[in-house]
Amino acid sequence: MLRWLTPLLIALILTAAGGPAWAHAELVTASPRVGSTVPVPPSEVRLSFSEGVEPHFSGMEVTAADGHSVTAGRVQAQGAEMRVALARGLPPGTYRVTWHVVSVDTHRTQGSFTFEIRP
Ligand SMILES: [Cu+2]
User: What is the tally of helices (H) and strands (E) in the chain?
Assistant: First the structure.
């Protein structure tokens, strides 16, 4: 009986672990929005997460298509938000935002997305 009960219990625990009580800091909203096309160069990238993030262990980079950084100044994290200013007047093109955060529950998550500037 224990032979099938154990996998069942593990499955139940894993299902529960995916629930809100154990949720990690996932990206909820971004500005510019994930995958969006914007007509005007944004002055900053702002990310909002499902949990508070640890400023010292979280960060992001914004790069142009050729890989060089287009941020201006330090990444700032407060509560569940992280933001960074961008260089002024970015030219049209596709930009990639790469982020990593450690949430207040000490779990690390990361991801990346692009947005396009097209006047
Ligand atoms: Cu977590």
Answer: 1, 8
